[in-house]
Amino acid sequence: MEELSGCDATVMISASEIDANLYYATRFAAPDPFIFVQTSAEKIAVMSDLELDRAKSQSSVDTVLSYGAYERMARQKGADAPSLLDVLDLVLQERGARHLLVPGNFGVEYADGLRARGYTLSVKREPFFEARLVKSDAEVEAIAATQRATEEAMGAAVSAIRAARIESDGLLYLDGEQLTAEALKKIMHMKLMEHECVAQHTIVAPGLQGVDPHHHGNGPIRANESIVIDVFPRSERSRYYADMSRTVVKGKASPKLRAMYRAVLSAQERGMELIRDEADGRAIHAEVNGVLEKDGFTTCMLGGRMQGFFHGTGHGVGLDIHEPPRIGKTGGVLRSGYVVTVEPGLYYLDAGAIRIEDLVVVTAAGCRNLTNFPKEISEFEIE
Amino acid sequence: MEELSGCDATVMISASEIDANLYYATRFAAPDPFIFVQTSAEKIAVMSDLELDRAKSQSSVDTVLSYGAYERMARQKGADAPSLLDVLDLVLQERGARHLLVPGNFGVEYADGLRARGYTLSVKREPFFEARLVKSDAEVEAIAATQRATEEAMGAAVSAIRAARIESDGLLYLDGEQLTAEALKKIMHMKLMEHECVAQHTIVAPGLQGVDPHHHGNGPIRANESIVIDVFPRSERSRYYADMSRTVVKGKASPKLRAMYRAVLSAQERGMELIRDEADGRAIHAEVNGVLEKDGFTTCMLGGRMQGFFHGTGHGVGLDIHEPPRIGKTGGVLRSGYVVTVEPGLYYLDAGAIRIEDLVVVTAAGCRNLTNFPKEISEFEIE
């Protein structure tokens, strides 16, 4: 845990299921908001009576207090219908905490209420817990386990594309049915669910759909076009994410697409060579971009659309899918234990889209790839 | 949309994927935070360049602005490394908005920043959009569609219990394997995923585990014990939740368990009789509790544990799994179009647990049950 920066206590009020900092602090996934207080002496969760037992047995906090008990206390002290602030006030008074450290996303409703009661607040921006960036061995293992499931899902999608037949209409058919982006996503999501992993916003973007890097993709899959597949599930068990992308073509890729693939692969390899403790994310991104430019792939606005390489090289992955650091125009310094994606891409309206993405953990001497899935040029075109 | 209560604009900054109000206002699911501004004239989303196209084609806002373009504008005006507040400031200046309406969960970091720049903030608590409580026909349909998937999942679990054999160790076996709570959850989650629905915190609580209503349940399933099954998935397509619970026994239930089941069923039926436009949630809860008490099932602390009926009768369901209103000790008035659960339960350490939960939509004359799954006493014991 972080130090308190001169404050008496850290306070969070949130649903840990949607607030990774609170989950990190408590290791307890709750769908409804609860109060968390951390002093130098203890970590405290104030739970509704229905969640008390579960919090006591599952969370990593030292003390689980009953919200109902404090509500009754507040009522005895004269509060007619005690509010969450009345309860929090009592807990903080007991601990003698007046100066509070809160995260940037702390709700203004509670911030104003605490200030009106005489508390002072220090607001800390992301990363609220800097330690969250440096993954422990157990965290790296959890992320790698999610990546194993991701690889199985990707493998299932690629197998389906391999098994599909190209018919005379130029479309792919599997077991007599048109093979669609939707069908490929379902194949992946079912495989992920077998491993208790859930992916949202999965991208299967055939042809020019992929030229918008965030287009989720839909409709039939056509032969001889790029198919960008990008999937980033979370394990329901560990709550850690993984992330990977591959691009394939069923049939024959155009010479330009093939050249794009080679360039993206080289750029990705160069990026991974540069990743190590203390490396600068911005410099890595510039170098990755340089590889693509040297191969003749420039980035600019063409026909009102950005084309070339116009997103970051990578981002942190952990309890959130997008965490610090960024490896991009605004990247910072990498440290051993950071888990980051390396995902250059190229996007051209006259050719299609290529993105290749692995997930690596930064080490003192370089990085260790947590991804085990083929990406050689020989894997790009599928017969 | 709601009126602005005398403010110039509503402002939200959040990831709509975890903030149902923002999703409701934009109908756009984004995993990363973005700026939303609503004036009396227009709804505006300020999106990163990567999300621009998707927001334009998918969201319900009138205007999608490029975050990058405003960042460049801020740089021209002298900001060295423009922050999100610099961007928001420009957008608000353009619209002449000074007095802002924000939700209670608006981040204190941005609230303080806006106030420091001379903006005034009116903070509105939940329900931020009162209209969210009243479901349109399309919303009711979406919730009902999720409930259809939920019924299939529940059916799959009950079928597995039915197909299982009781062996001499008193445990259930299916296809030669011990039938566990984990296996039943997986059966349900796979079935839900077929319908693009995802459930978290699914409860399959055998025997005394179920006496803690929030215990998720684990381990082998035993004959002649209550098995509480409570599943509340969200559709990945519509983003609307559903919710249902059933309790079954494989083999023979004890007389007390059977009496508990009958009482809970009567209490639930009584609750549903009372639900209608303008009915008071607190009165309904009291009446439901009264049915249980009349049948001799009292609620009290016994051996350090609450026993009897000690949770609410119901809660709203929509884009969040727990929405206003509550039908419970702190319930409010029901209105036509509210979608609520009706889920009394009984929990005793000397017998086990019973919970029966349906999902209904409030109408002028009563309520319409959105749940179509048997719950008669004849369905309780499974041969």
TrEMBL record, chains A, B:
The keyword Membrane does not apply. SUPFAM superfamilies: Creatinase/aminopeptidase (SSF55920). It comes from the Bacteria. Residues 142-364 form the Peptidase M24 domain. The keyword Transport does not apply. InterPro entries: Creatinase/aminopeptidase-like, Pept_M24, Peptidase_M24B, Peptidase_M24B_aminopep-P_CS. GO terms for molecular function: aminopeptidase activity; metal ion binding. Keywords: Aminopeptidase, Hydrolase, Metal-binding, Protease. It holds the Pfam family Peptidase_M24. Belongs to the peptidase M24B family. This is Xaa-Pro aminopeptidase. It comes from Candidatus Methylomirabilis limnetica.
